[in-house]
Amino acid sequence: MKYFFKRFLIFLIPVVLYVVLVIIIDPYNYFSTTNKVVDPALKKSISNKISNPLFELVAFEKQPTPHVLLGSSQTGLISPDIIKEYTGNQFSNMSYGGGTLPELITTFWELTKRTQLKEVYMGISFIDFNGSQYRNRITEALKIKNNFISYTFSKSALESTFLILKSLALNKKIEIGKPDMSEDEFWKFQLDVTANRFYKTHSYPVNYYVSLKQIADYCDANNIKLVFFIPPSHVDLQKKVEEFKLQAEENRFRQDLNKLGDVYDFNYPNDFTKERHNFSDPFHVVNAGSRTVTAELFSPAKKGIAVFLKKTGVAVSP
Amino acid sequence: MTREEVLEQITAIFKDVLDNEDVVLKDETTAGDVLDWDSLSHIQLVVAIEKHFKCRFSSKEIQSWNNVGEMVDCILSKK
Amino acid sequence: MIFNSIPFAVFFSCFFILYWVIFKNNLKLQNLLILAGSYFFYGWWDWRFLFLLIGSSVVNFYLGIYIAKTTNEKNRKLLLYLGMLQGLGGLLFFKYYNFFVTSLADAFAAVNVHLNVHTLQLILPLGISFYTFRTISYLLDIDKNKIKPCNDWVVFFSYVCFFPGLISGPIDKAKLLIPQLENKRVFDNGQMTDGLRQILWGLFKKIVVADNCADIANQIFDNYKNLPGSSLALGALFYTFQLYADFSGYSDMALGFARLLGFKITKNFNFPFFAQNIAEYWRRWHMSLTSWLTEYVFTPLSIKFRDYGKTGLALAIIINFTICGIWHGANWTYVLFGFLHGLYFIPLIISGTMNKKTKKGKPTLFPSLGEFKNIVLTFILVLLTNIVFRADSLTQVFAFFKHIFSSSLFSYPLFTNRISALTALIFSVIMLSIEWLQRDKEHALQLDGIKMAPVFRWSIYYAIGIIILWFGGSQDTFIYFQF
User: Which pLDDT tens digit goes with each residue over C67-82?
Assistant: First the structure.
């Protein structure tokens, strides 16, 4: 028996070493926010790519703010620092690359558990408003975050730890998920492949709309300011809606959001969305563009690149 | 009929039904010891034995046999 | 707590140390620990059904003793029927009551008589199909004088609820498990290591193969109306891999945990996908259920029907497998599933090749062409019935088959995520290849006969561990928990 226990304990040594390593490196700042054994910027550059939701959810739990932004990558471009310049309030941007509606919904309820929210800005585009997009990485991330063992032995922690070590050992930056194409090629790819994939599978998100309505009602009841905005996309992408004959659905989407709250609509043909220099690809604005969008949403001096729609509040029957 | 005769005769039946000339039966032989003697061939063996010895077993008797010896006892009890 | 969860890991570690270190020299205390641990394990899910489990143990414990004591044949039968009523009654009530009344109402409605039936909001008590089959076989075996009743209540209660096999089998026979509970277990280093290996293999099958296949199979079965036949065929394939990896993975873990406690419980799988005909398949798939049904359903039936030759045999088999189907749950899909498997036997009965087992020779690296043909054919037969098994209703079964067998079967299959489908497929193939090479062993990770340096051996364990972390899917349950 002693022999077995001894062998088993020896067998566990590498496992224990791994646990110690994860605690020291702490790729998602799970154990502490002040641990600087590894440069926090390096950690963020890797972990935020490996599991964007886990990284943001851990950060929010450590430092919750009553002001938040929710959405997908288009909303992710808005910088809380710039909002602070305009409003003085510290925002958390809880948007995820490739985020979906169910992820936004799950995140909202998770945040309500962490703090008393005051202000919620939701960036939702017509592409996100799709019943077939059911991927939800948040439930998984919450499960990982749930306790120290599931965090340490999660794929995210393992992968990030490995990549951080690799980056330290090779002493160079590791690029994750950077498209291997020229800017023009990528532009075309986003239009012809990515956009097609979304529009081809478009279906009206009945259940998600009901969930959004519950969120709107909750915000009403708890004095939370809820604002929707439809992020800008380049006119090339806007035209895709016609190509797939989804104009009626897109209008319904606008009206639906408007029933739930105030809406800033950036996504229509205007000088801003016609200008290719404002965009890095058809979906995403460049930094300067995102500053303009932020100003439109938060500064009193507006340039008028968004149409403002006051909440209609009509009872909905999806 | 003696035990040995019965054992000899059922060995012949087993060889025939299971199509296997290598069958050797002793009192303590069980289904696990003989290739292809399973629940499916078992019933064919029972039918063949009943026919050969011109007797009829009850359901309870058949299910109570734990080895070849008990089967032989049961056959002898019918004679 | 399921086997692959943190609560279970904590539970089992504590249990293991108490069992082997603290209570090592006291059989009675060890058994009490098994009993308490099993009830804790069961109560973690739902403590309410603990009363049913304990109640059923009490009733069967006393019935066992009285059946053995009673010499009057009539009284003895009466006690036996009382036991059957308790076991089957409980099972029928919880599992089949609603199905029975609604089917009855449907049948009457067909002849224009409209019954006003009440269905009940029943939750299926976890593991009831498994532990009820244990108690039933216990009483039947006592009645047939095959075993003596157990006089130690701790032993008997532990037999009914032994936690490795409580929730989804294997269905251990009393003559196998009770003697092991009555005698001192020895700590054997080799058994321990091999038990751990079997658990590791079970984890791999469950977390890497089954959970990844589940994602793909669920997507396809949920959207089967919008997908081409080729996708549906692949969906059936993924579901078949999932079902096997899930249930046999669970069984590997159950056997492994039992071995860590010094028990050898019933083997439940013997690499069924390498079977060369359907009879062999059932001798290798969910073996503890098949052998239970063979002993208590098929054998009595075949004896009754023995004067009708092959027809009688076929009838006994069809009834046996239909019951096997219904055992899984109250749904016509399970009835059809079992019935089809019964029908699959008919060609074997007619040709008389049913009980010709493949001669055991030294396993070769590759199957012969004939063997390969038989294996693939048997696999396809199984795959087709698994569609029935997976479907929610007969309507869905027919719609699914109609979609598969259309011209779109030959189109390019559509997936929402091609990479994850490919990953699931690759791991399924890896699992089957390793099991093929190890098919003459007790389980796929049994390395005892293989010469290799300990460093290499340990590297394999770590590698599997990393694969589990890296590629693991995340389902919170096992398929067979619902049965």
Answer: 999 989 899 999 999 9
Three-state secondary-structure class, residue C357: coil
- Alpha-helix runs per DSSP H in C204-228: 211-222
Phi-psi region of C329 (alpha: psi -120 to 50; beta: other; left: phi over 0): left
The contacts of residue B49 (CB under 8 Å, 6+ apart) are B10, B13, B71, B75
How do residues C30-75 score in pLDDT, each as one tens digit?
999 999 999 999 999 888 899 999 999 999 999 999 999 998 989 9
CB-CB under 8 Å, C306 with B39: no
Answer whether B40 sits within 8 Å of C355, measured CB to CB.
yes
Say yes or no for a CB contact (<8 Å) between C192 and A153.
no
* Stronger pLDDT, C400 or A179, i.e. the higher one: C400
Exposed / middle / buried, residue C205 (Cβ in 10 Å: 0-12, 13-18, 19+): buried
CB-based burial label for C269 (10 Å; 0-12, 13-18, 19+):
buried
| Four-point Cα dihedral C378, C381, C383, C386, nearest 10 | -130
Collect all residues with Cβ–Cβ distance below 8 Å to A317 and sequence separation of at least 6. none
C139, C83 contact by CB (below 8 A): yes
Among the partner residues B38, B40, B43, nearest to C303 by beta-carbon distance: B43
DSSP-assigned letter for residue C349: H
3-class DSSP state of A91: strand
pLDDT of C451 above 50: yes
% of chain C residues with pLDDT over 90:
70
Question: What is the C-alpha separation between C435 and A186, in angstroms, rounded?
Answer: 45
In A49-140, beta strands by DSSP E: 67-71, 91-93, 119-123
Rounded mean pLDDT, C99-105? 84
- Strand pairing report for A91-93 and A67-71: parallel
- Which chains would you list as touching C if contact means 3+ CB atom pairs under 8 Å? A, B
In the predicted structure, residue C363 carries a pLDDT above the cut 80: no
Q: Measured on CA atoms in the order A135, A138, A139, A141, is the torsion positive or negative?
A: positive
- Is A318's pLDDT higher than 70? no
DSSP string covering B15-67: HHHHT-TT----TT--GGGSTT-SHHHHHHHHHHHHHHHT----HHHHHH--S
Those residues with Cβ within 8 angstroms of residue C298's Cβ, 6 or more apart along the chain or in another chain: B39, C316, C317, C320
Q: Are C1 and C41 in contact (CB under 8 A)?
A: yes
pLDDT digits (tens, 9 = 90+) for C301-330: 999 999 898 899 999 999 999 999 999 988
Nearest CB neighbour to C469, from listed A1, A14, A155: A155
CB contact under 8 A, C472 and A155: yes
Tokens 């390593």, residue located: A21
The answer to whether the beta carbons of residues C386 and C239 sit under 8 Å apart is yes
Can you tell me whether residue C149 is helix, strand or coil? coil
What value of ipTM does the predicted structure carry?
0.89
**Residue from C61, C73, C86, C62 nearest C144 by CA:** C73
A73 vs C116, more confident: A73
Q: Which of C188, C154, C167 is nearest to C264 (CA)?
A: C188
Angle between helix C229-260 and C189-203 (nearest 10)? 160
C452 vs C463: CA distance, rounded Å: 16
**pTM of the shown model:** 0.87
Contacts of C470 in chain A (CB under 8 A): 155, 158-159
